[in-house]
Amino acid sequence: MRATHQLSVDLHDQGLTTDASRFAYRAKVLERIVRWYELCTVTWHDPKNEQITVRSVWQGLARLFSILLSWLFSWFLFLIAGYGYRLRYCLG
User: Fold this and answer.
1) Distance (Å, rounded) from C-alpha 80 to C-alpha 84?
2) What is the pTM of this model?
3) What is the pLDDT of residues 10-29, one digit of tens each?
4) H or E element: which one contains 55?
5) How far is CA 77 from the centre of its chain?
6) Positive or negative CA dihedral for 79, 88, 29, 10?
7) Which spans are transmembrane here (predicted)?
8) What are the φ/ψ torsions at residue 51 (nearest 5 degrees)?
9) CB 39 within 8 A of CB 28
10) N or C: which end of the chain has fewer CB within 10 A?
11) Could you tell me which of 44, 37, 26 has the C-alpha nearest to residue 67?
């Protein structure tokens, strides 16, 4: 995702905006996939001593909620306007 985003920035700096927007769109799609994998790997234990504590559960829930909100908002932007790169979605 980072490499795709960096490529889009470099292409935009060189004046190749159509190619840059295609790679920027792909970077956003990959970012949504990364959020999904992060959601699947939320830990519920303390990383120092590998024990489940009340504090580690609350931290896991906070991280889960944060990632879930980010993932859902990313889907919302994709469905409404294709992250701003596919404006024909707005008509639907």
Assistant:
1) 9
2) 0.64
3) 888 888 888 888 888 888 88
4) helix 54-81
5) 11
6) negative
7) 64-85
8) -110, 150
9) no
10) C
11) 37
Provide the CA 16 distance to its chain's centre, in angstroms: 24
At 15 the pLDDT is: 85
- How many Å separate Cα 83 from the centre of its chain? 12
Q: How far apart are CA 29 and CA 1, in angstroms?
A: 8
Token duo for residue 44: 């519920």
Contact 14, 46 (CB under 8 A): no
- State both tokens at 12: 């935009």
Looking up tokens 């409404």 gives: 80
- Report how far apart the first and last C-alpha atoms of the chain are (Å, whole number): 28
Please tell me the chain's helix, strand, coil percentages from 3-state DSSP, rounded to the nearest 5. Answer: 75, 0, 25
Residue 1 CA, chain-centre distance (Å), reads: 9
Token reading at 19: 């190619």
pLDDT of residue 70: 85
